[in-house]
Every structure is written in structure tokens, then in C-alpha cells.
Amino acid sequence: MVVLSILAAVAMPKFFTRSEFDVFGFKQEIQQSLRFAQKSAVAKRRMVCVAVASNTLTLQYATAYGAGSCNQSLIDPSSGSAWSQAAPSGVSITALSFTYDALGKPSFSSAQTLAVTAGSLTQNVVIEAETGYVR
User: Fold this and answer.
1) 128: Cβ contacts below 8 Å, ≥ 6 apart
2) What is the pLDDT of residues 58-96, one digit of tens each?
3) Residue 105: is its pLDDT beyond 80?
4) Which residues of 56-81 are buried (b: 16+ CB within 10 A; e: fewer)?
5) 58 vs 15, 42, 52, 76, 86, CA distance in Å?
6) How confident is the model at residue 15 (pLDDT cuts 50, 70, 90)?
7) Burial code of 101-116, b = ≥16 C-beta within 10 A, e = fewer?
8) What domains are defined for the chain?
């Protein structure tokens, strides 16, 4: 029992750190946001713009069909405010900007990878080019 107590107090914190949970959690938030952006593009039949910069993901859409730029923020249904995901402290993400067209297809021609990183830990979010599938 004493040995288990020592292991629990000393060794277990080495296996799981806060940054591992932050990276994994933020990766899932990014995946969910990208899926929401694609579904919104199809549902609204409008272009949706995805911008990842300064460790923040934002989503906007074009208010008119066929418009070449996004000028209105997508609304987060849970909060009622503009859709924005900020990385937790110590977590970074690679910058990337692209659009989903009205059919949900992304604007790039080859798969893109967003790397969510904290220290030496990296989780990748991959967006397929032809289908927009996020994994």
C-alpha cells in the first residue's frame, strides 16, 4: 500500500500533464469548429471563411450567395456571440486561412494540417481537400 501511495504521489504526475489535456481538448474544439463551418456553408449555401491566426480560430460567412468575401461572423449557438476559439495558455496552432464553398468543399487543392502544440507534444488536425472531411 505504501509503495502504491508513493507511486501515485510521485510517478503519476509525470505521465499526465496539464498541457497534454489542453492540446487534446483544443484539438477537439478545432475539429468541431471546422465541421461546424463546413455544415454552415452547406446549410446557408454561402461561402464560409476560416481564419486561424494568433492562436485563435474565427469563422465568418458571406451574406450574399456568390459573394467573394466573408463579411458576417458566424454565431456560436451555445453562447449567441461571434464564433471564436482561443487556444489555452501554452498551446499554439499553425496559421491557416481558407474557405468552404456552398457545397462544403475547402478552397485548397491538397490536404492541409493544423498542428496543435504545447512544448514537445503535437496533435494534428487534417482537413481533406476534396471532401473537407476533418480528422
Assistant:
1) 106, 111, 134, 135
2) 999 999 988 889 999 999 988 999 999 999 999 999 999
3) yes
4) ebbbbbbeeeeeeebeeebeeeeeee
5) 33, 18, 7, 11, 9
6) low
7) bbebbbeeeeebebeb
8) 18-127 (3.55.40.10)
